[in-house]
UniProtKB/TrEMBL annotation:
InterPro entries reported for this sequence: Ala_Aminotransferase, Aminotransferase_I/II_large, PyrdxlP-dep_Trfase, PyrdxlP-dep_Trfase_major, PyrdxlP-dep_Trfase_small
The protein, known as: alanine transaminase
EC number: 2.6.1.2
The family this protein is said to belong to: Belongs to the class-I pyridoxal-phosphate-dependent aminotransferase family.
All copies of domain Aminotransferase class I/classII large, residue ranges: 34-395
Cofactor or coenzyme needed: pyridoxal 5'-phosphate
GO molecular function list: transaminase activity
Enzyme category, top tier: transferase
Keywords: Aminotransferase, Pyridoxal phosphate, Transferase
The organism's taxonomic lineage, starting at the top: Bacteria, Pseudomonadati, Pseudomonadota, Betaproteobacteria, Burkholderiales
Amino acid sequence: MKPIAKSSKLENVGYDIRGPVLDKARQMEDEGQKIIKLNIGNVAAFGLMPPDEIIQDMIRNLPEAAGYTDSKGLFAPRKAVVHYCQEKGIKGVMVDDVYLGNGASELIAFSMNALLDAGDEVLIPSPDYPLYTAVVSLSGGTPVHYRCDEGSGWLPDLDDMRAKITPHTKALVIINPNNPTGALYPDEVLRGIVELAREHGLIVFADEIYDKTLYDGVTHTSIASLAEDVLFLTFNGLSKNYRSCGYRSGWMVVSGDKKRAKDYIEGLNMLASMRLCANTPGQLAIQTALGGYQSIKDLVAPGGRLARQRDLAHDLLTQIPGVSVVKPKAALYMFPRLDPKMYPIADDQQFAYDLLAQEKVLIVQGTGFNWPDHDHFRVVFLPNTDDLTEAIGRIARFLDGYRKRHSS
C-alpha cells in the first residue's frame, strides 16, 4: 500500500530542542543510561517549583474549573494582566485586548495564522527560538532571519534588519530577554526597532517570557511601552518566571495602533473561539502569580540559585580552550561559540550526537536555532551546581579529545 506522508507544509519546519538528538537520548535512557540534560528550560525538572500560593490557589479553585471559559479567558486573570501592562508602561490596554492561552506558544501560533498569506514575510532573529520560524512557515509565510551580533552582546543588527525589509514584510519578531543567548536589549535598540516598524508599517511581535529573569540589577523595558502608533503583540506567561511550564498558562496583549488592525483582531478573535478556551486551571494561576510574592527575585539576586549557576556555567565554559561565551544578562541559557580553527565542525547535529553518545550530556546544536554556522551550541544552566560542574567537565573532556583528533 502507498505510504502515508506528512504534509508538505512541514518541509521547512524543525524544532531541534525536542528533535532527533533528544530521540537518541530517550533511547539511551530506555537502555538504563543516565543523561545530564542541558537542552531544555523545563525548570521543574531541576527542582525549581512554582510558588506555593499558586499551587494552593489552583487546588482550591479546581472544583469550579471544569467548564469552558470565555474564549479569551476569565475576567480576573485578564484584568491582572492589564494591571501588569500598566506597571510595564504599556498604555491603552483594556481587558478585551488580553488573550489567555495554553502557554504563549499557542498564542504565537494563532497570531501568525491569523495574519499571514502565502508570500508574506516575517523578520525573525538569528539565532531564534525555533517556534517562530516553524509557525511562520506553517502559516504560509516566509521566515526571513536578521542577524544578532555576538560582538555587541547578541543585540539585533538594525542595519541588517533594515536591509531585509521588503514590500512583502508584514511583521518583525523580537525575543527580549533572549532565548538562546540571554541578551537583554537596551532602550536605544528597542527605539530603533520601533522606528523601523513605524517607517514600514510593520507589526512588532514581542516575546517577553523571561522579563523577570534578570541578573546584576538590570531592568527590562517592554517595547510596547515605547510607542502608541505601532501595533504590538506582546507574549508572556507563567512558565519561566513562575516555574510553571506544565500549567500551560500564557497571555498575549494587543496594544498600540489597534484601529488599523480591526480586521486582523477579528481574525484573532475567530481563532481564539475555535480553540474554545485555554485550560481553566492554568488561567486560575495568573492572578495569584502576578499579585503574589515575586520569588524569582530571590533566585536571580546575587547569591541566588540561578545567579550562582549562571556564574558557574560561564566560568567553567570560558576556561575551555577555544570556547567563548557572552555572559547572559537574563533568561536561563547561554550560547557558547567554538573557535572553528580549533573545532572544525562540519555538522553540528552530529557533534551533539557524538557528545551525547560519548559523554551522556544532551545539548542543542546552534543550527537548531537557525544560526547559519556550525560553531555554536546552547546550554541551560538550570542543573544544581554539582550536576552543572559534572556536565561541563564532560563537555570539556569531549572537546579536549576533539581538539586532539583534529589538530594538524
